Amino acid sequence: MSPQYPGPKTQAMLPRGLPLFRNGLRYEAAASKAREKGYQAPAQIIVDRAAGDFLWDIDGKRYIDLQNGWATNPLGNAHPEIIEAVHEAHKRYGFHYDHPLRYELAEKLASIMPGQALPRFNFEVSGTEAAEAAVHLALCYTKRRYIIAFSAAFHGEGLGTKLISGYSGDNNRYLEAWTGGVIRAPFPFSDNIPAGMSEEQYADYCLWFLDNHIPDSVAPRDSIAGILIEPGLAEGGNWIPQQSFMQGIRKLCNKNDWLMIADEVLTGMGRTGKMWAVDHYDVVPDILVVGKNLSGGIEPCAGIAARDEILGDNPQSSSGSTFAGTPAGCAAGLKTLELYERDNLVEKAASLGAIANKRIKEWERYSIVSQARGNGLLLGVSFKNPNIDEDNWFMARAVRSRMLANGVWAISDKEETIRMYPALNMAPEVLNEALDVMEEAIAYVDRHGHTEGNYPAWPTGVAGF
Ligand SMILES: Cc1ncc(COP(=O)(O)O)c(C=O)c1O
């Protein structure tokens, strides 16, 4: 029997974060505001150990892991073969910039890029750096000034990526004056379609906006370097773009001589049941950004892949950093890709995704579920308050809290969606168990509401992020 949650060690440790971490005061303010309204504070756990599909908190309580190291553990937690490969690389090389593994991994990546059309690669440390590198490359290659990015998109927390991301106005406070080169365009969210429009009409409108509104009234067509898009808007809520939208973007880029940049940091490497999310749309981007899964969940590794001429000789363009493409990071990437092939990981993700998508779609019958959507194992369930049109995200929080109490960890980060990122090789019975727990939590909150005191009291405290 799993211990109760939050256990005494968790209760004691979380408050230690309040004076330590940057989010401490913010967390406390959010928690007390929630309590004033009779809602729950955000629930957190502190991980003691992790293995495969599971992790344990410091009180020894076990959770099925749908958080997945924020979607970075394609083969589950702490995969021993990847750890071994990383360990060997550490022992052999320590850290040096040039080593054979960077050549091997770049060659391997070139062979699996969409359409095998992106042969050049530049290593970066994180997804953030890689997204920034992609934008910089596009500007330098085209010698143009503007990049189009989307509402609710997330590309990272660096200065450049903050400017490009559109997922929260607040995120750009005090940076307003710096965003001069970023043009924000509407993304055709499937649950927020303007009255009277079909989903396809909405997608068409968003394409029209790109091809007409922007060049007519924001920036000249030939001053725009390209369009940066997540082919599955991940942090923004796991939104899945329509077929016509993604294909329309490729066509617009061709027509206008704009580069199409796919940020596949989260959607890439099998997350959606294909190696790249763009493969669902039969489009090949000009630049592709990769991170997260490439690390095998063990050692950071990220980068950009691009068409030969784009990432060829360009005196203005540069990116990368000291620790980009470390021996250990490349070893992790190489071993991870070897295991993808050996274990048919992308096919596994597709069949697990089919199970999950069928089940979550059925949850739209609950009055608190506004929409369930997914592409492979990029899964999101959005919530609404059926009684009042506000604070929908407390519904999501209440469901997630009950899931945690019952041993399933998923993401809901002050948002009205619960996002799930199972490992691509999660055992089907474990995934089904996690979905059983989630459905029970939804049914519970649907019946009892989200303010009822039937959830575990959450201690005031903050984990270190
Ligand atoms: C689409 C996308 N791009 C970039 C990033 C930033 O990656 P990292 O956190 O590794 O810097 C993220 C992180 O969630 C992401 O989802």
CATH architecture of the largest domain: 3-Layer(aba) Sandwich
In CATH's first tier, which class of the largest domain applies?
A: Alpha Beta
Please provide the ordered H/E string of secondary-structure elements.
Answer: HHEEEHHHEHEHEHEHEEEHHEEHEEH
Give the % helix: 25-40%
In spatial order, strands of the major sheet run 4-10-9-8-7-5-6
The CATH superfamily title of the largest domain: Type I PLP-dependent aspartate aminotransferase-like (Major domain)
- Going by helix content, strand content and strand pairing, the class is alpha/beta
Rg over CA atoms: 22 Å
Give structural notes.
- By secondary structure, the chain is α/β, with parallel strands linked by helices.
- It has 2 domains: 172 residues, Aspartate Aminotransferase, domain 1 (Alpha-Beta Complex); 263 residues, Aspartate Aminotransferase, domain 2 (3-Layer(aba) Sandwich).
- Helix content is 37%, strand content 14%.
- It contains 13 helices and 14 strands.
- The strands form 3 sheets. The chain has a 7-stranded mixed sheet, sandwiched between helices.
- α4 packs antiparallel against α10.
- About 1% of the residues have low confidence.
- The protein binds pyridoxal-5'-phosphate.
- Pyridoxal-5'-phosphate binds next to α6.
Q: Key features?
A:
binds pyridoxal-5'-phosphate; four-stranded mixed beta sheet; alpha/beta; Aspartate Aminotransferase, domain 1; 465 residues; 14 strands; single chain; seven-stranded mixed beta sheet; Aspartate Aminotransferase, domain 2; 2 domains
